[in-house]
Specification:
Shape: globular
Distance between the termini: 49 Å
Structural class: alpha/beta
Largest sheet: 8 strands, mixed
Number of domains: 1
CATH topology: Rossmann fold
Helix content: 25-40%
CATH superfamily: Alpha/Beta hydrolase fold, catalytic domain
Number of strands: 8
């Protein structure tokens, strides 16, 4: 029973749902490319890795922010932030390989792999000195990118970042064995509903588009590839811990956590208040600012977008 409860909580990192959607009436996607995105989608071919990365590019500010989504998510997670911040920044949101509208070739899911993709993407677009904003797993990718490729990063925004929490050897092995392609693929509508709700302090009605997409994508011919990427990504987070390297980050870093985050720390493996994990991680990054947001869950940049947008402007201006 305890293991089943742990799986339910952990799966919520990558499932998108809502309890009031008339699911039976939803359209079924033939391909994940069929999803409708709010902003115009472009694709960049990365010749070294061979991946095509879907992205949106809004705004023309002097500073560029690259937004990296979390486990099982997509670039649409950042729409509330892009819509506001594009007045002051060039805002580029990406779908990671295996997710959204990006290409679906199998990959390792390692955080170092994703950091390589970010680095190649930055160079392919002719960018330099970017701010990288990452949510959850995207936060761990952002950290890894700053550590591996410090020359391209001038700042970090870490939103409910994975990587601040420490897992011992047995816990890591459990995650490797528990998270499988079939486990992701066979998630029921009811489980999807409960899982996304746990990402928020109070589930907002305007999250419905994400719920619909998560349900509709199950019919897509590339859905298995997406599920594989999610399962691989879980192993990648376990295999590439960053907690011991946070002190090596040399750029200004804004860190935001919801005080009511139900996912960090893991409530079954490492029970305790989120603020302890947040403060411990932030204390290791020299030039950092930690903001704890009340009445807010894991999906902070969506649930409290006005707070996120304001704090980004204040920090980097």
């Amino acid at each position: 029973m305890k293991k089943t409860l742990i799986i339910t909580i952990f799966v919520s990192l990558f499932t998108m749902i809502n309890c009031s959607t008339p699911y039976k009436k939803l359209a079924k996607f033939k391909h994940l490319d069929d999803m409708e995105y709010r902003h115009e989608v472009k694709k960049a071919h990365l010749p070294v890795s061979g991946y095509d990365i879907a992205y949106t590019d809004e705004g023309k500010g002097k500073q560029t922010i690259i937004f990296i989504h979390g486990l099982g998510s997509y670039l649409q997670a950042w729409i509330k932030n892009v819509d506001q911040l594009k007045a002051d920044y060039r805002c580029i949101s990406i779908d990671l390989p295996g997710y959204g509208k990006s290409s679906k070739q199998p990959h390792s899911g390692q955080m170092t792999f994703y950091a390589e993709i970010v680095n190649e993407f930055v160079h392919e677009l002719g960018l330099s000195n970017v701010i990288i904003a990452g949510h959850s797993m995207g936060g761990q990718i952002a950290i890894t990118s700053a550590l591996q490729y410090p020359n391209i990063v001038e700042g970090l925004v870490l939103v409910s970042p994975a990587g601040f929490e420490k897992f011992h050897k047995g816990q890591k092995q459990w995650f490797r064995e528990a998270m499988t392609l079939d486990g992701v693929k066979l998630t029921t509508t009811e489980a999807i509903q409960n899982n996304l709700a746990s990402n928020f302090y109070r589930l907002p009605k305007d999250a419905e588009f994400m719920i619909n997409d998560r349900i509709s994508m199950r019919s897509a011919d590339d859905f298995d590839a997406y599920c594989y990427a999610v399962a691989q990504s879980v192993q990648g987070m376990v295999d590439n811990p960053v907690l011991s390297y946070l002190q090596d980050i040399k750029v200004p870093t804004l860190i935001l956590f919801g005080e009511n985050d139900n996912l960090i720390p893991n409530r079954f493996l490492n029970p305790g208040p989120t603020i302890e994990v947040a403060k411990n991680g932030a204390s290791k990054i020299k030039d950092s600012k930690l903001i704890m947001v009340p009445k807010c869950g894991h999906f902070l940049m969506f649930e409290k977008s006005e707070v996120f947008n304001r704090e980004v402007k204040l920090f980097f201006n």
